[in-house]
Specification:
By secondary structure, the chain is α/β, with parallel strands linked by helices. The chain has eleven helices and 17 strands. It has helices at about 30-40, 55-65, 85-90, 110-115, 175-185, 210-215, 255-285, 315-320, 345-350, 365-370, 430-445, and strands spanning about 5-10, 40-45, 50, 95-105, 115-120, 145-150, 160-165, 195-200, 290-295, 320-325, 335, 340, 380-385, 390, 395-405, 405-415, 465.
Length: about 475
């Protein structure tokens, strides 16, 4: 009987789509991720649907692990419904040894259901990278410990962080989780295929990293984004959001350069540890039979559009890297098909030939990876709390911001204006495009059962309420 392929799932935190050298960002060093791109298939249009919480990573991760749409998960992703099968759980029940390390932001019960092995587990959203409170794997699932209320991404949004009494002072989180993975690969005795879920906390702030990686980037030589702005150009609900007060207002080029230098340094450090994990995989003899997936939970602005966080629907915040390599995966292929992170669950099921659980809503893009025709997504829907709704096709994106009972609508031509700098919503030649995309917004509102949608069905009959920006 032929052994099913292993799966190594590498998950970054806050890494946007355009932070990889091989994909065009020549300011950053990512040699190991570049090699994954060379050896595999890359999707440059991988997205999250945004989030129901300012802590966007919580619902993002819940969608990833359940394969379900944004409004079908509960509790903003802090916990996962026991009726929703999980990715790790599904693989576990189909003959896989499942290992999880790093950030787990969706409750201890969901972790217990997902993994048969693990270590250096962080039950929370963010922490000092050099003093991460972690748990060792407990096969009984009893991850007791002090519970601390943690403000995450919003001054009004608090989440529970389960604090263990064990830290590894002076060891960076990226190294902590990398070493746990390497030890698992080296020491495992099982003949079963494995699923190793490695969830890094980098490059999420606080942006700290070993000095040697910080020294690789001189802020003075970092380019300011072309869509840099001193402040966001419309009234915005997230001005005081935790992510947005990491730098003062008005934004300055010097501040943005400094933050980008640290952001890039964290990603390069992450890339270095990824290289060590892959080397361990090769040394173990399992590399040739391992599917490697590299992606992230959400993007990040870091100075674009006058923003620093991810609580918006600009490309920098909703798009993430997605790379897959391994046995039977076509090499050195770049694809532009639309995918969501929650499409990964059914895709993995197809890759390893197991049945997709019925509650999974994502669309498998397995056939697309293999170069075959399939029913790919033609549009994407995005929702951020009750404040922003957007829809995107291959050429245009329509965005609606709601703040203080004022609605601001933006239309961008993504082909000719990929940095989303020119709002064309009031130009007469785009009137039909606005109408078409506005109808799509309400179509997806109903399809996704979006009960948080801020705009009534009669909204587009009241066009005078739209304000340009």
């Amino acid at each position: 009987m032929i052994k099913k392929p292993n799966i190594l799932f590498l998950f970054a935190d806050d890494q946007r789509f355009d932070t990889i050298n091989a994909l065009g960002n020549k300011q950053i060093l990512t040699p190991n991720i570049d090699e994954l791109i060379k050896k595999g298939t890359t999707y440059t249009q991988a997205h999250i649907p945004s989030g129901t919480s300012p802590a966007v990573c919580m619902p993002s991760r819940a969608m990833l692990h359940t394969g379900r749409e944004l409004f079908s998960i509960k509790d903003e992703g802090q916990t996962i419904d026991s009726n929703h099968p999980l990715l790790g759980e599904t693989l576990l029940h189909n003959g896989y040894d499942t290992f999880g390390t790093g950030k787990w932001h969706n409750g201890t019960d969901a972790y217990y259901r997902s993994f048969s092995n693990g270590g250096e587990i962080f039950f929370g959203g963010m922490e000092d990278h050099w003093n991460v409170p972690v748990h060792e794997f407990d096969p009984t699932g009893k991850y007791d410990g002090r519970v601390r209320k943690t403000m995450h991404s919003s001054h009004s949004n608090w989440t529970n962080t389960f604090i263990s009494n064990r830290v590894s002072p002076g060891k960076h989180s990226t190294e902590l989780f990398s070493e746990a993975t390497i030890n698992y690969i080296k020491e495992r005795k099982s003949e079963k295929p494995f699923f190793a879920y490695v969830s890094f906390m980098a490059p999420h702030d606080p942006r700290t990293m070993p000095q040697e990686f910080k020294d690789m980037y001189n802020p003075d030589k970092i380019e300011v984004p072309k869509n840099f702005m001193a402040s966001h150009h419309i009234e915005y609900a997230n001005t005081a959001c935790r992510d947005e007060v990491l730098a003062p207002y008005p934004r300055t080029e010097a501040d943005v350069k400094s933050h980008l230098a640290e952001y890039y340094a964290m990603i390069t450090h992450l890339d270095y540890e990824v290289g060590k994990i892959i080397k361990a995989l090769k040394d173990s003899g399992e590399y040739e039979n391992t599917i490697i997936i590299y992606t992230a939970d959400n993007g990040l602005a870091v100075g674009q559009h006058g923003l620093f966080g991810k609580q918006c629907h600009y490309e920098h915040s909703i798009r993430v890297p997605f790379i897959i390599s391994g046995p039977s995966i076509p090499e050195n292929i770049i694809k532009e098909d639309f995918i969501y992170l929650f499409d990964i669950f059914p895709t993995i099921c197809d890759l390893v030939n197991i049945e997709k659980p019925k509650p999974v809503q994502g669309i498998s893009f397995f056939k697309g990876i293999m170069g075959q025709d399939y029913n790919s997504r033609k549009e994407l829907y995005f929702a951020y709390t009750d404040k922003i709704r957007s829809v995107k096709n291959k050429k245009y994106k329509l965005m609606q911001h709601v703040y203080k009972e004022r609605v601001t609508t933006q239309l961008f031509d993504l082909e000719n204006d990929p940095l989303e700098m020119a709002n064309i919503v009031e130009q007469l030649q785009y009137k039909e495009i606005v109408k078409e995309l506005s109808e799509k917004l309400f179509y997806y509102r109903d399809q996704w059962k979006d009960e948080l949608h801020p705009l009534g069905a009669s909204y587009w009959n009241q066009y005078k309420t739209i304000t340009k920006c």
